[in-house]
Write a structure and sequence with these properties.
The chain has about 450 residues and is α+β, with helices and mostly antiparallel strands. About 35% of the residues lie in helices and about 25% in strands. α2 packs antiparallel against α3, α4 packs across α6 and α8 crosses α10. The longest helix has 26 residues. The chain is rod-shaped and about 120 Å long. It starts with a helix and ends with a strand.
Length: about 450
């Protein structure tokens, strides 16, 4: 009986002990006593920081050398001013959060740009530039010998540190808009058709981006593209029955090819090429498109007007294509005539286009030789001694020996060409000179020195 009572008592004690231990573990930790309301010294320190920090930042902005840093300081805001515990000597530490924009494009080594949507790409750059960062500005407020409160900036985390931080960020921001990908996207958006050897100057900040480069001759490139498009349509199965949609598509294909070639021709950028300097607000350009920037809008308007005029002319030219079919252009060679007589070498200047040359006897009107010469190539033919009319024709569409370059070709004639005897040989160089009527003229000097030489 006594043993049972003792066991019962032991179990009861153990249960009470476990309950007490569990209660102790479950009990919440005591919370720190609240610091209480801010002291007068802390309130005064906060007020002084709120007053002095914006003024100090404004002075830093005035002294900043770059526009990027100036704008960062100009858009900086001060918030979350907090004062610490006042020391026995009356010094109160105070901290403020300074928020300022990064102005960084966000482009990194991994960034890719395929050129398909420059406006979206530039918009992302501008969006990235709007992101902000913060800086913890620190100072100490303490009374001077006369009892007046003075704010002293922290040696490393005060205005000197803020100046260093913003200056560093400003340099990085400017550099981010000078990366090759950034330049390509900006130029594609501002001047989507082509800018050769583009250079970008960002010293004026995002609101005054400057692009210097060689812009294409819009009139010339559209005319050349139209000629190629007409040729492509003439050689197609549709011919002059091609739809307006097919005609527009053919023109755009040739325009894209011409502008792409212009853009890549860095080596041909000559000192005589006119360079243009254009200034625009990148934020407006990204947000509203070319119409938001007058100088960019002028270029786009010129492009649109030129394309419209050329498109209308091309539609008419397609309708006027002849009934006879276009033929594959021949290789450089003699198409008709005999191969005996005095040797005659004919060179076609590069970039003058393909041409055909026909020699006709002056007295009889008999066609003796017809030759085809491709752009930049030469041919040797043979003509009997005598006087000839030399007819030169060129164009983009070849209709065969009978019709040569058809109604859209350009033609010119030198009626007084004298061919010497076989003891000599002749050299003619043909270039293109377009007059008011678009006539092609062979630059021939008859039988002046250098045109023929002894065999």
């Amino acid at each position: 009986m006594k043993l049972s009572k003792m066991l019962f008592t032991l179990v009861l004690v153990l249960c009470i002990t476990c309950l007490c231990t569990a209660s102790a573990l479950a009990a919440p930790k005591p919370t720190a006593e609240p610091e209480g309301p801010p002291t007068e010294e802390q309130l005064a320190a906060v007020a002084l920081m709120q007053d002095q920090a914006p003024l100090a930042i404004a002075e830093l902005g005035k002294a900043a050398k770059s526009v990027w840093a100036q704008e960062m300081f100009g858009q900086a805001t001060v918030s979350d001013v907090v004062a610490g515990k006042t020391s026995k000597k009356g010094a109160t530490p105070v901290t403020a959060t300074v928020t300022f924009p990064l102005f960084n494009s966000g482009i990194s080594e991994k960034t890719k740009y395929d050129g398909s949507d420059p406006q979206a790409f530039v918009a992302d750059m501008v969006k990235s530039a709007a992101q902000t960062t913060t800086y913890a500005l620190k100072a100490t407020v303490a009374p001077d010998k006369d009892g007046a409160l003075q704010l002293k900036w922290d040696a490393s985390k005060g205005t000197t540190g803020l100046k260093t931080a913003i200056t560093t960020k400003a340099k990085a921001a400017a550099a981010s808009f000078q990366k090759k990908i950034a330049i390509a996207a900006i130029c594609d958006l501002a001047f989507p058709h082509a800018v050769r050897v583009p250079k970008i100057d960002v010293t004026g900040g995002l609101s005054a981006i400057q692009v210097t480069g060689v812009l294409p001759d819009l009139d010339l490139l559209h005319v050349l593209a139209s000629e190629k498009a007409l040729s492509a349509i003439a050689y197609s199965d549709a011919g002059r029955t091609a739809s307006s949609e097919d005609i527009d598509k053919a023109l755009q294909v040739e325009l894209d090819a011409r502008f792409a070639a212009f853009k890549k021709s860095k080596a041909s950028a000559k000192k005589t090429d006119p360079t243009q300097l254009l200034t625009f607000d990148l934020r407006k350009l990204a947000d509203q498109g070319p119409d938001a920037c007058p100088e960019v809008s002028t270029y786009h308007t010129q492009y649109g007007v030129t394309k419209s005029v050329v498109s209308t002319r091309l539609l008419n030219d397609v309708e006027q294509l002849p009934d006879y079919p276009a033929q594959e252009r021949p290789k450089t060679g003699q198409l008709q005539g005999k191969k005996s007589g005095t040797r005659v070498v004919i060179r076609r200047e590069k970039d003058a286009g393909d041409c055909c040359v026909r020699f006709t006897r002056t007295k009889t009107g008999e066609s003796t030789v017809l030759a085809y010469i491709r752009d930049g190539e030469k041919i040797t033919i043979y003509l009997p001694e005598g006087k000839y009319a030399m007819e030169v024709g060129s164009g983009n569409i070849w209709y065969g020996p009978e019709h040569t370059f058809g109604p859209d070709g350009t033609y010119g004639t030198d009626p007084n060409v004298s061919i010497a005897s076989r003891e000599y040989y002749h050299t003619f160089t043909l270039s293109i000179v377009r007059g008011a009527q678009g006539d092609e003229k062979g630059l021939l000097d008859g039988l002046n020195a250098g045109d023929f030489s002894a065999q």
